[in-house]
Amino acid sequence: MSGVSARVRVRSGVPEAALRVLAGAGLDAAVGPLEVAGCDALLCLLTDRIDAEFLARAPQLRIVANMAVGTDNIDLAAARARGVAISNTPDVLTDATADLAFALLLAAARRLAWADRYVRGGGFDGWRPDLGVGLDVTGRTLGIVGYGRIGRAVAERARGFRMEVIWHARGGGVPLDELLGRSDFVSLHVPLSSDTRHLIGERELRRMRPHALLVNTARGPIVDEAALVRALREGWIAGAGLDVFEREPALTPGLADLPQVVLAPHLGSATTATRDRMAELAARNIVAALRGEPIPNRVV
Ligand code: GLV
Domains, the chain, ranges and CATH? Predict the structure, then answer.
């Protein structure tokens, strides 16, 4: 970048696409483990905990660009107090994440993870009317909790399945209790904050219908996982499709023993093109910050 010498740190694991954007702007980046001392800009991952103590290690830090739409790994108040900009990567991952939410919904409804284990295990000895029966998706009611970009994209997919879509958000929709009581499927799309931690706990799970399924591609701590394990064991609900976990990557004991749960390792945005777009967007936020231009995806 002409006239600007800046130290940019890129967390190892970030796709190379980010480095190409930085190089195109004349910025050399040091790639390696999470470190910030001496840096002007940091491109980090959602698994990196960026707290006040961490930020204090880099007095000249101008921006932390998170390669994620969620920013719950970052102490935003501490960043604001230090004058460090924080950016995220919205939009570019909306479709991939909505696709995965729908994949989990279908997989849980039609018992695909169980079916795969069954066939591989040599259990399949012929068609039977009662083998692997699941829940209809077409025409059923989908309750979407959080109606932002990803929630709306899930609703679009549901329309192709002629589902009735109801939604709940802070600013509107149906009350959460009504949504839980009416839905055959509940899909979570709220960001994690102190307001949404354990938004779905014992009380809410008990309000769901016994044949209903819960899908979570948002953040694990939105669901009280111990209550979810009880709900599944005791039949308050019928199943779940989970891409995120309360103490990720650890699983609450008992969760993995439940055959009616489909588990994925936080794959919402995991397509090659999407991950490249996230890396590029994060890098573009850094370039803008270091040039003193408006940061396109500024959160703080
Ligand atoms: C993924 O979970 C993200 O927040 O981008």
Answer: 8-91+272-291 (3.40.50.720), 94-263 (3.40.50.720)
